[in-house]
Specification:
With 604 residues, this protein is an alpha+beta fold. The chain is 42% helix and 14% strand. It contains 26 helices and 17 strands. The strands form five sheets. The chain has a six-stranded mixed β-sheet with strand order 2-1-6-3-4-5. Strands 8-7-12-9 form a four-stranded mixed β-sheet. Helix 1 crosses helix 2 (34-45). It is globular, with a radius of gyration of 22 Å. The structure holds iron/sulfur cluster. Iron/sulfur cluster (SF4) binds next to loops. Residues 73, 95, 284-285, 288, 290-293, 481, 483 line the site of iron/sulfur cluster (SF4).
């Protein structure tokens, strides 16, 4: 096999065992890698009804045939598990040297199951595996843990770890590497915490088996050079994704005050140009020459790595317009290993609950000191923090009132940084995303606004499905960053060439889309299997705030989504995906994709 190492490493933390397991070429060509591998492993190995925070759940760290090879933006790692936040399939990707080192150690995925008897570090070095005691690191931030572990290993070692939020099983805890790269929004950090796993450290020294290493070297160099020629390259290096703040403000889709408004009166205080004034450097994932992490000095004089999502969710969405303070909250989120998107969303929910008298705590919009206290309380599950640590869906069930209408989530995952009062296509993207309300699979909002934001027609449904297949399936399974293509216009043809030099196989776009369709259908089946009788098409509908409460400010004040028209779009989406009227994949769809056993398990 070329391009893949052909081995998974299975770790049982209960027994402290490590087993290298060969996998078949068929699995590689059917699921490609990354998200594809993770979905297949979890479908096969996690029994329906498993408690996500029990020893029986598994967490998968997966790479793909393009990971770690030294081609543009290939240092990505998928982290996946049954989610404690949503109860469905959960994953996320992060840039980490773990991805590169895992491939060089000879594995395409590490599967962790069981639970260590005491806090532990998993250390993989080529074909050896050790379980280190983590008692001294338990209770430390992810930054402190990584710094300590680096002293013990090498500069090139890959390290991912959790902070106190993961240890305390906060349901939206992530996994962090390199002081600011975080992945696994739906609680992958909590799954690590539940297994007493503080960190995974990987060191690899072997070469990755490639079909044509010389050709790959040449193509990789050419690819990096090509990126430098893209017109937007230099501005991207200046602001990364931060320029989106102004674009959203201009287009009334900047989440503000818990998604009530699409404009923020202090947006200039948190936009890309405000960021440039306090920026000290760029940071990024391994093997990337268009690094998009903007490192700034925060209000406490420490480094914090900013991008659009964390700035908006911890800025306009909670009424905070001073960027150094936003940066402090963001750095705290990374240290504790919170997902910064869910954290900002949850704080916004708490502020609204406070304003409406549903909770007794006083947490005013933009009140920096109160927010810092709240962040600590959530990390350590103190007082109201203990309720909020469950995420907004669960919190709204406890706090009550009408708060389920403005608990801003889909399937339990907090909505990321786009207000959709006036963008039905983007609302559908959130509604049907593979992990709950996340933008990564289908960021169609710029296309939608350019092509008629007010319509609910089929062209949007078709565009959405195309985007989900490409971004959510193809990029996540080849396992490289989507930004060169989606933001700089790096042509898709490059990836066909890279796949050929890596695997020796020609993958047409049609074949890649079919793999992607298989992966996304398997993930859908995972949700349906887990939810059982609770499964309903209502789970694909975003919160009622976007339908029943119009925008309260800005040029589009008074606008809202139309629920009936949204439902018609959803029906069309289901038909085009080959799903029934409840959003369940039909037997013929699963059969066509070679998922006959999946159809059987769902009793279709
Ligand atoms: S563009 Fe940004 S997210 Fe993508 S690989 Fe580079 S640093 Fe990472």
């Amino acid at each position: 096999m070329h391009g893949w190492t052909g081995l998974f490493l299975r770790i049982d933390l209960t027994k402290s065992t490590a087993t290298a397991e060969p996998y078949s070429e068929k699995l590689a060509s059917n699921f490609l890698g990354g998200r594809g591998f993770a979905a297949k492993i979890l479908w096969d190995a996690v029994k329906p009804g498993t408690d996500p925070l029990s020893a029986a759940n598994k967490i998968v760290f997966a790479t793909g045939p393009l990971t770690g090879i030294g081609l543009p933006n290939s240092g990505k790692l998928v982290i996946a598990s049954k989610s404690p936040l949503t109860g469905g399939y959960g994953d996320g990707n992060t840039g980490s040297w773990v991805a590169v080192n895992m491939r060089k150690a000879g594995y395409d995925a590490v599967i962790v199951e069981g639970k260590a008897s005491h806090p532990a570090i998993l250390h993989v070095k080529d074909k050896t595996c050790d379980f280190w005691d983590a008692k001294d690191l338990w209770g430390k931030t992810s930054f402190e843990a990584e710094a300590q572990l680096r002293k013990k290993t090498s500069k090139l070692a890959g390290i991912v770890s959790i902070g106190q939020a993961g240890e305390n099983l906060v349901k939206f805890a992530t996994v962090v590497s390199q002081d600011g790269r975080a992945g696994g929004r739906p609680g992958m950090g909590a799954v690590m915490g539940s297994k007493n796993l503080k960190a995974l450290v990987v060191e690899g020294t072997q070469s990755i088996p490639l079909a044509n290493p010389e050709e790959m070297k040449r193509l990789a160099v050419e690819g990096y050079k090509e990126l430098l020629t893209k017109p937007i390259y230099s501005f991207w290096k200046r602001q990364g994704t931060m320029s989106t703040v102004d674009w959203c403000q201009e287009n009334s889709c900047l989440p503000t005050l818990n998604f009530r408004q699409g404009v923020f009166d202090k947006a200039e205080g948190i936009n890309g140009f405000a960021m440039e004034k306090i920026k000290v450097s760029n940071r990024g994932c391994p093997q990337c020459n268009m690094t998009c992490g903007n490192v700034v000095k925060d209000s406490e004089g420490q480094d914090s790595e900013l991008d659009y999502e964390n700035v908006v969710m911890l800025g306009s969405n909670i009424g905070l317009g001073r960027l150094p303070e936003v940066a402090t909250l963001n750095r705290m989120a990374d240290e504790f290993s919170f997902d910064s998107i869910s954290l900002g969303n949850t704080i916004g929910y708490a502020m609204e609950a406070s304003e409406k008298g549903l909770i007794s705590e006083k947490i005013g919009w933009g009140d920096f000191e109160a927010i810092k206290t709240l962040v600590n309380d959530i990390a350590y599950r103190r007082g109201i923090g203990d309720i909020l640590a469950e995420g907004v869906r669960s919190a709204s069930k406890i706090i009550g009132g009408d708060s389920s209408n403005w608990a801003m989530h889909v399937k339990g995952l907090e909505i990321s940084a786009y207000d959709c009062h006036t963008t039905p296509g983007m609302a559908l993207a959130y509604g049907t995303s593979s992990i709950g309300a996340h933008h990564k699979d289908a960021w169609i909002i710029t296309w939608e606004i350019k092509n008629g934001r007010e319509t609910y027609d089929d062209s949007k449904v078709e565009y959405l499905i195309k985007a989900q297949l490409l971004r959510g399936g193809v990029f996540e399974s080849m396992n490289v960053c989507r930004f060169p293509h989606s933001s700089l216009g790096f042509e898709l043809e490059w990836y066909h060439k890279y796949l050929r030099a890596s695997t020796g196989q020609d993958f047409s776009m049609g074949q890649l889309n079919q793999i992607s369709d298989r992966v996304l259908n398997l993930i859908r089946a995972f949700w349906v299997r887990e939810y059982g009788k609770e499964w309903s098409r209502d789970l694909d509908i975003p919160p009622m705030r976007w339908f029943k409460e119009s925008l309260t400010d800005g040029p589009l004040k008074g606008s809202a989504l139309n629920l009936e028209k949204y439902k018609v779009m959803l029906d069309s989406y289901y038909r085009k995906r080959g799903w029934d009227e409840n959003g369940v994949p039909k037997k013929e769809t699963l059969d066509r994709l070679g998922l006959v056993d999946v159809a059987n398990q769902l009793k279709l």
